[in-house]
Protein: Fe2OG dioxygenase domain-containing protein
Amino acid sequence: MNPIVFPFNQPTRPNFSEIVYYEGFFTASDIERIKSMWDSENEEKATLSGTKEGTDDTLRKTKVTFVKEQPDSIWLYHRLGELGIRCNHERYGYDLLGFHHELQLARYGVGDFFDWHMDFGAGEISHRKLSISVQLSGSEEYEGGDLQFMINQNAVSVPRTKGTVVIFPSFILHRVTPITQGLRQSVVAWLAGPPYR
Ligand SMILES: O=C(O)CCC(=O)C(=O)O
Ligand SMILES: [Fe+2]
Structure:
């Protein structure tokens, strides 16, 4: 590693990585339990976080519900929270205080997508530090629908295997490419903390 010129006494983070993924973190039966949390009465057309203007079909088209923190869902908060804290400890070292917002369940049908964006931005989403996405559908269940990250000029796809958990800093550009066949489901969680310093 090249020495830093004129160091300010801060350690560097050699383990930092744009994306971390854990294949097979959730079992098939965990995933069935998660999918059953879909709350059709409170299903919404996804809105853009951090804005009050509502939906923008050119950036995002998908349906979402939010998982309330209650006795039958608390296990999912625990499993994602523990993994996020461990990953943060090993890789990022951010200050984390808890989840930002309830867990989001998303359904992408044919024609649905979420174009390039960051989960971090002005206003309340400036508290987001780490984003977590869980693949709830097997690769063979849909076509298109790749979760991709912009790493320099390359769109890098992550594994599509059911039960994979992907963790990444909320400021990294990412997208879900349009679904051309089938249905893709995911859980997205955000871990939040005080402003960057
Ligand atoms: O569905 C996913 O895996 C990711 C969706 C996403 O980027 C988001 O909801 O912010
Ligand atoms: Fe996102």
The radius of gyration is 17 Å. The longest strand covers residues 184-192.
